[in-house]
Design brief:
Layout: H1 14-19, H2 25-29, E1 35-39, E2 53-63, E3 67-70, E4 73-82, E5 85-92, E6 106-116, E7 119-123, E8 126-129, E9 138-142, H3 151-164, H4 180-188, H5 193-221, H6 237-241, H7 249-262, E10 269-273, H8 280-293, E11 297-301, H9 305-318, E12 326-329, H10 335-347, E13 352-355, E14 369-375, H11 382-389, E15 396-401, H12 406-414, E16 418-421, E17 432-437, H13 442-454, E18 458-462, H14 477-486, E19 494-497, H15 503-514, E20 520-523, E21 536-541, H16 549-556, E22 567-572, H17 579-587, H18 591-602, H19 624-640, H20 642-646, H21 649-657
Parallel strand pairs: 5-7, 10-15, 10-16, 11-13, 11-14, 12-13, 14-15, 17-22, 18-20, 18-21, 19-20, 21-22
Antiparallel strand pairs: 1-9, 2-4, 2-6, 3-4, 4-5, 6-7, 6-8
Length: 664
């Protein structure tokens, strides 16, 4: 249906909607809210993040006069008391509101909570007089309109489209649920929180079932695997025997899993999960030796220059004398090096290429790529993996991670990503003590780090931001570095590293840290993977509430990397309510278990990589129960209603968009 058939949408409005990816009434209806403002209950200031929108009830303590700062700029402020906390309310260029803000009266206010010089502030808040909200109440959807169209106008357009559109459902023949139309109405026009949750779940059930059904059709229609490895596992016995240590039972089992996949009738999609020290890399390299000896090339992609170099050095050491020609390709490789590597890969004389994103470049052509390994899969996008896979037909894929992303967890639930888990080698994880602290303990932690330095150890301090952000009182790496150099760590050699640094400067800082010259490294999550400093015993994460559990577990894995070295992961938060979530890390050291918790908390997301407009946050999250339900629905549709389901427009859309998407 054309957009102009909706009341209020004229020819001048259509181009604006097109900029938002909206070309039909169906697109308009599927333009779901990015988030929802919950005004059904007052916020708890003790458990609120800076930058969140808050609804508060309190009393105005004092009001300033309107001050004219300069031409076209005026301001007045009020001191507001709520939950025993003073908050500064500031209105810019709104003198007409001054007489409506009366000292001594009760008000409900709504706005973004920020902090300025230690004081809580709300800038240009909405407000109404009284202790209970009338106008400021209910659930307000917020659309990702990029300020192209006003929020109320977008809601009006969507309501008009829903009235005119039809809502055919693919699942109603095998599943009883609310009508799909009702799901959209609840998602766009909720009255209470439960409306959003049930409405978004109904829409997600329709979409995921259609995606899984479409994928079954595509998978059934794909050409059978044509690669023929056809050699026994014994052909790598000598490579395994040459290793400087004996493989663990779980490593041997994982190698058997991979080689069994190689010789199966379908392309391999396997996740190798294991914590620091479990030996994921050596398993991948033994599998690479098998593939090479069967006549295929192998690509090994890592997310960072540092990690790629580490894998290259490890491969050269462990595979020496095994008849494997190894090369490395990264963004900082010289032009001459890149030219030589690309020529060797194209001719087939180089059979194991290790590198960063450079491996997926257009000019990298393989003679006979059969197997790809992707380390730290959580650091790559869907398109990165798809691009590498598409360099050869039916390429086998092994992805590795200590803490798999929710999307990978979802695919293991669906059964399209097989799982091999490694048990830790030794007791390094047991050497790490995890603790959650508040602001009042930071000085003690800095003193503790001093003591560890005196014992010849080193420390990381991780911040959520590179630079200060106005109104967001999060610790930034640059400002913390400056304050530590001048204060608590005066005289101690401190380094600073973050992702946007020039590669040569970053590499020099890391070299000095590895050498022990730098004792404390202030950083962002750039050190999350690929950093292996044996003397680092303390990981302090500031504003840890900003990070997911999986990221925090990865950061924890940067310490305790030397057998017998007692190490510490200290998670700082200013948010009292966050301590319970963070304490779950103190109770678990298993990365896969933590990834499961992280997925359950955050939702499993858009595991086919086809996110449409709107996210819905926690209210619209996809959980394991929903995925399993949709899998059963898709199976029923495939077995019992194949032909009629194929005719649905949503299925035809997914058949087109899914055909080139990697599901590894």
């Amino acid at each position: 249906m054309n957009l102009t058939e909706v009341k209020g949408i004229g020819e001048k409005t259509v181009p604006k909607l097109n900029k938002l990816g909206i070309y039909s009434t169906r697109d308009l209806i599927d333009f779901l809210p990015r988030r929802y403002w919950d005004m059904t209950r007052f916020s708890d200031l003790e458990n609120t993040h800076l930058g969140d929108y808050v609804l508060l009830s309190g009393r105005i303590f004092s009001v300033t006069k309107v001050q004219y700062i300069r031409r076209n700029m005026n301001v007045f402020k009020a001191t507001y008391l709520s939950q025993g906390r003073k908050i500064t309310l500031t209105w810019f260029n709104a003198p007409y509101l001054h007489d409506k803000v009366v000292a001594g009266e009760e008000y409900v206010v709504w706005g973004k909570l920020l902090e300025n010089k230690g004081a809580l502030t709300l800038s240009n808040p909405s407000f109404e007089q009284g202790s209970k909200g009338d106008r400021l109440s209910g659930i307000t959807p917020i659309y990702p309109t990029k300020n192209i169209i006003a929020q109320p106008t977008m809601a009006k357009f969507i309501r008009g489209a829903i009235e005119k559109e039809q809502f055919p459902s693919i699942i109603e023949s095998v599943c009883k649920d609310m009508p799909l139309r009702q799901g959209y109405i609840l998602s766009h026009f909720p009255h209470v929180r439960e409306d959003v949750i049930s409405g978004r779940r109904r829409i997600n059930k329709e979409r995921i079932s259609a995606q899984l059904f479409s994928y079954k059709i595509l998978k059934q229609g794909r050409a059978p695997k044509v690669k023929c490895y056809g050699k026994p596992i014994d052909i790598i016995s000598d490579a395994i025997a040459a290793l400087p240590y004996k493989l663990t039972p779980s490593q041997n089992s994982a190698i058997n899993d991979i080689i069994s996949d190689f010789n199966g009738g379908e392309k391999m999609n396997r996740l190798l999960a294991g914590d620091v020290g479990s030996g994921k890399t050596v398993v991948a390299l033994m599998a690479a030796v098998y593939a090479v000896r069967c006549g295929y090339q192998v690509a090994f992609m890592a997310p960072t220059e540092i990690l790629a170099r580490q894998h290259y050095d490890t491969a050269c050491k462990l595979l020496s004398g095994q008849g494997v020609s190894i090369g490395i390709l990264t963004g900082v490789s010289s032009a001459i090096e890149k030219k030589g590597i690309k020529a060797a890969v194209k001719s087939g004389t180089l059979n194991l290429l290790i590198g960063t994103h450079s491996v997926i470049g257009d000019k990298v052509e393989f003679a006979n790529l059969g197997f790809i390994i992707i380390d730290e899969l959580q650091r790559f996008g869907v398109r990165h993996k798809s691009t590498l896979e598409n360099k050869s037909e039916n390429v086998d894929v092994l992805v590795m991670s200590a803490t798999p992303i929710p999307r990978a967890m979802a695919l293991t639930l669906y059964g399209d990503l097989k799982l091999s888990s490694l048990q830790p080698r030794g007791s390094m994880a047991d050497n790490i003590q995890t603790k959650v602290i508040g602001d009042d303990k930071l000085a003690d932690v800095y003193a503790f780090i001093h003591k560890r330095i005196e014992c010849g150890e080193q420390a990381y301090i991780v911040c959520p931001l590179v630079e200060d952000s106005e109104g967001l009182e999060r610790v930034s790496a640059k400002s913390l570095y400056a304050s530590l150099v001048a204060g608590p760590f005066r005289g101690v050699n401190i380094g600073l590293v973050y992702s946007s640094m020039k590669e040569d400067i970053k590499a020099d800082i890391m070299r000095r840290f590895y050498a022990g010259e730098i004792k404390v490294l202030v950083a962002t999550t750039v050190i999350e993977v690929g950093i292996d400093c044996k003397s680092a015993s303390v990981m302090l994460v500031l504003n840890a509430d900003c990070f997911g559990l999986a990221t925090l577990h990865q950061l924890r894995g940067r310490v305790g990397r030397r057998e017998g070295l007692k190490s510490y992961c200290i998670l700082h938060t200013s948010i009292k309510g966050e301590s319970e979530r963070l304490k779950s890390l103190c109770e678990s050291k298993d990365g896969f278990e933590i990834a499961q918790k992280d997925a359950d908390m955050r939702g499993y997301g858009d595991f086919f990589g086809l996110r449409q407009s709107g996210g819905g946050g926690e209210w619209g999250k996809i959980d394991s129960e929903l995925i399993l339900e949709c899998r059963n629905i898709a199976d029923k549709l495939y077995k019992e209603h194949l032909e009629e389901t194929m005719n649905f427009e949503i299925v035809q859309k997914y058949l087109t968009t899914l055909k080139d998407v990697s599901l590894s």
